[in-house]
Specification:
Layout lengths: L2 H93 L19 H12 L1
Length: 127
């Protein structure tokens, strides 16, 4: 083998090594990018999962709040009805139409002849 052949062979080996080094570097860069993309996908999935769990939790809290609000509304309606009932009873007493409620059974003789006893008797006759 001649010196020219050895130089050519060495040059070819050096070029092959340089090409392999270049290709190896590109391959490593691609691997790094793929690892980063994989990590990014995993992070995305984690964040999506966290957001969905938070959404479900808040949805349950909202349902509970709506339920409590419905109960509060019904209680408010009941209180308004009770207030209306009390107003109506006050009006009855004001007009003297509920005097019979003001005396007890053992007091009937004492209030004989008053509107309270007379109304009671009229109601008993109707029944």
């Amino acid at each position: 083998m001649s010196i020219v052949g050895i130089v050519v062979l060495v040059a070819v080996v050096v070029l092959v090594l340089l090409a392999l080094a270049f290709l190896l570097r590109r391959f490593r860069d691609r691997v790094r990018v793929k690892k980063r993309e994989l990590e990014l996908r995993q992070r995305r999935k984690q964040v999506v999962s966290e957001h969905r769990e938070e959404a479900e939790t808040r949805g349950r809290q909202a349902e509970a709040a709506e339920f409590r609000a419905r109960i509060a509304e019904q209680e408010a309606q009941r209180e308004r009805a009770e207030a209306q009932l009390r107003q109506e009873k006050a009006a009855l007493h004001e007009r003297g139409m509920a005097d019979h409620e003001l005396i007890e059974d053992h007091e009937r003789e004492r209030f004989a002849g008053t509107a309270a006893v007379a109304e009671t008797r009229e109601e008993e006759r109707r029944i």
